[in-house]
Amino acid sequence: GQQLNQSPQSMFIQEGEDVSMNCTSSSIFNTWLWYKQDPGEGPVLLIALYKAGELTSNGRLTAQFGITRKDSFLNISASIPSDVGIYFCAGQLFAGGGADGLTFGKGTHLIIQP
Amino acid sequence: EAEVAQSPRYKITEKSQAVAFWCDPISGHATLYWYRQILGQGPELLVQFQDESVVDDSQLPKDRFSAERLKGVDSTLKIQPAELGDSAMYLCASSSRDRGGYGYTFGSGTRLTVV
After folding, report:
1. Looking at CB atoms within 10 Å, which of A35, B35, B48, B68 has the fewest?
2. CB-defined contacts A:B, below 8 A
3. Contact (Cβ atoms closer than 8 angstroms) between residue A52 and residue A69
């Protein structure tokens, strides 16, 4: 099945640094979602974006829904050790009659060195 | 906080055997999804239910996989016979009828190993 283009695949950073990752698609979505997944667990929703151009924050996390509806980025400011994990973007078509399934990226593996 | 329940957490089965996974969505969530996540990849949708009806099973390998949600509440995903390539995490998620992202919750998954 289709997977979104997510980059970078992995990041090695120092604690306190800012992080940026992005996701692109060949098709449009009307919802973009960002999830974090810890080993052996299911994905946990971080931020949801519903409108093209929307910029949303959740604590140290900021995400934007691209104007073309084909891309999104996630920024994490002042990283801390518990930010370690795999981050996934996901696009969704929500036609009003019910939510469609998500199309995921391949993930960005974030590793933080203290 | 409401959760999507899945069992078992881990399953080891031999090739050609049958295996089944169970999911109980958040109470009141009409839409239920089964995803498969191969190690190093993002989850991929297998099947979507709206109440008891299948609305999308285009990515479900129907020769060996089946899914049901008889009363529109909990759901079972079955593989028969299991193959080595079926080793993966199987995730269940549910969403409320009128929500997009915020109403979409994943369970902790079932890790399947086929030997």
Report:
1. B68
2. 80
3. yes
Q: What is the mean pLDDT of residues A91-108?
A: 80
**Segment B9-13 long-range contacts (CB within 8 Å, at least 24 positions apart):** B9/B108, B9/B109, B9/B110, B9/B111, B10/B110, B10/B111, B10/B113, B11/B110, B11/B111, B11/B112, B11/B113, B12/B112, B12/B113, B12/B114, B12/B115, B13/B82, B13/B112, B13/B113, B13/B114, B13/B115
- pLDDT digits over A28-82, tens only? 998 899 999 999 899 999 999 988 999 999 999 999 999 999 999 999 999 999 9
Asked whether the beta carbons of residue B109 and residue A88 sit closer than 8 angstroms, the reply is: no
6-35 of A, contacting B, C-beta below 8 A: 6, 31, 33, 35
Say how far apart CA B7 and CA A109 lie, in whole Å: 27
